[in-house]
């Protein structure tokens, strides 16, 4: 059904580099007066609003937005600095119920919401590319596939909190929204030809209305390499160092990984140094910054070493209602394991049939849950309700509920 090009199709297409915005690179909008002019222009514009945002991931603490790019027919492109202009709600009100076009919208919408930008409707070019089975879904690849244009991405990982922003960074930012509406139009045509327009509409609305993710339980357990740390006492050191690093990073507005790498936390947890000299003797603490703050890290280690036994973290992690890891299913519940095998085969077949990645047909967690604890009875209506409760979209339920019910009955 998909009208996507084959994996190597763009290799035979001449790609024209996109190097300069049609309207040039204007001044960054960083005053109320300049923002008022942008609001007026976008209110008078027409059609969808192409939008993007730049963060300083890996440099600053958190995921704050440091540049907002918007473009609309008749209004041109505006590059807005949300640091001095944190309230951009007037821009959202100016465009009313116009559709917003973003690439990988789930990354930018939380930041937009913080600044008062709440699109009334959405078209996500990355999600559209996924539903079409396109082999590469990054913005540059999608622009090349749909328009035959080459979009440079050399500034995607720079520190966007830098002020003033260099001219070539601003040019890059403006180009990110330059052709986004044109890309949207091509993808919309392909979705219609593939019979997937309704699927896409449901996916876009799901992303647009998705509530903020709840805080993680025991986020320190996501420390890279912590799975190699054994024993409750050493895990307590991981937790204590992670919390100390988090506080330091938040206070300094620096990415935690720049304050202290995960590998240093893990190394200290394994070595259990009792003094600052022992700590800085570890190779992972040889950097100037780690040595300068070594007393802070040693204090965190000492606090963990002094904890009572009943205050130590569990080696098994927090209790959740999630199913166990699938590798354990055959021993713990062989019937559930067979349900999972059958369900995965169904999803795999549908993925090939419709040229949609398996994870976009149904969230893997929802698939595992319905296989581990299916509703009783496990008929199609009951499975449909179960999946609906796990935020599956109606197009996904329509493809899967009946098939899963049949497979579960056979198992």
UniProtKB/TrEMBL annotation:
> CDD domains annotated for this entry?
RNaseD_exo
- All copies of the HRDC domain together span 231-311
EC class of the enzyme, as a word? hydrolase
Pfam families attached to this UniProt entry: DNA_pol_A_exo1 (PF01612), DNA_pol_A_exoN (PF18305), HRDC (PF00570)
Note the superkingdom of the native organism. Bacteria
Any single GO molecular-function term of the entry would be: ribonuclease D activity
Q: Which Gene3D superfamilies match?
A: HRDC domain (1.10.150.80), Ribonuclease H-like superfamily/Ribonuclease H (3.30.420.10)
Q: SUPFAM superfamilies per the record?
A: HRDC-like (SSF47819), Ribonuclease H-like (SSF53098)
Cleaved signal peptide residues: none
Q: What is its EC number?
A: 3.1.13.5
- Which UniProt keywords are present, listed alphabetically? Hydrolase
What this protein is called in its record is Ribonuclease D
């Amino acid at each position: 059904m998909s009208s996507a090009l084959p994996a190597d199709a763009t290799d035979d297409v001449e790609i024209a580099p996109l190097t300069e915005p049609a309207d040039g690179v204007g001044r960054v909008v960083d005053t109320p007066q300049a923002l008022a002019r942008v609001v007026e222009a976008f209110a008078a514009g027409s059609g969808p609003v192409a939008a993007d945002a730049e963060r300083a991931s890996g440099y600053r603490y958190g995921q704050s937005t440091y540049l907002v790019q918007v473009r609309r027919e008749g209004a041109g492109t505006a590059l807005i600095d949300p640091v001095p202009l944190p309230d951009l709600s007037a821009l959202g009100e100016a465009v009313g119920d116009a559709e917003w076009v973003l690439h990988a919208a789930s990354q930018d919408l939380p930041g937009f919401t913080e600044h008062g930008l709440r699109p009334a409707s959405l078209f996500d070019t990355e999600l559209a590319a996924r539903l079409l089975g396109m082999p590469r879904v990054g913005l540059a690849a999608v622009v090349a596939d749909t328009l035959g244009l080459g979009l440079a991405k050399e500034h995607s990982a720079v520190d966007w909190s830098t002020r003033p922003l260099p001219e070539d960074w601003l040019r890059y930012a403006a180009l990110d929204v330059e052709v986004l509406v044109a890309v949207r139009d091509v993808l919309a045509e392909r979705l219609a030809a593939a019979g997937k327009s309704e699927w896409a509409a449901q996916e876009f609305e799901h992303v647009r209305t998705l509530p903020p993710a709840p805080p993680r339980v025991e986020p320190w357990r996501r420390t890279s390499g912590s799975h190699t740390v054994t024993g409750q006492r050493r895990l307590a050191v991981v937790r204590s160092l992670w919390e100390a690093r988090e506080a330091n990073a938040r206070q300094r507005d620096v990415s935690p990984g720049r304050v202290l790498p995960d590998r240093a936390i893990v190394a200290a947890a394994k070595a259990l140094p009792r003094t600052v000299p022992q700590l800085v003797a570890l190779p992972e603490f040889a950097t100037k910054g780690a040595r300068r703050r070594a007393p802070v890290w040693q204090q965190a280690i000492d606090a963990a070493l002094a904890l009572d036994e009943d205050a130590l973290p569990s080696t098994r992690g927090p209790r959740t209602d999630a199913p166990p890891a699938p590798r354990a299913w055959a021993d713990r519940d062989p019937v559930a394991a067979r349900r999972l095998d059958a369900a995965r085969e169904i999803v795999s077949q549908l993925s090939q049939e419709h040229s949609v990645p398996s994870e976009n047909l149904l969230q893997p967690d929802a698939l595992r849950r319905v296989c581990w604890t299916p509703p009783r009875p496990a008929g199609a209506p009951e499975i449909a309700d179960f999946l609906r409760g796990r935020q599956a979209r109606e197009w996904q339920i329509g493809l899967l509920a009946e098939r899963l019910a049949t497979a579960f009955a056979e198992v």
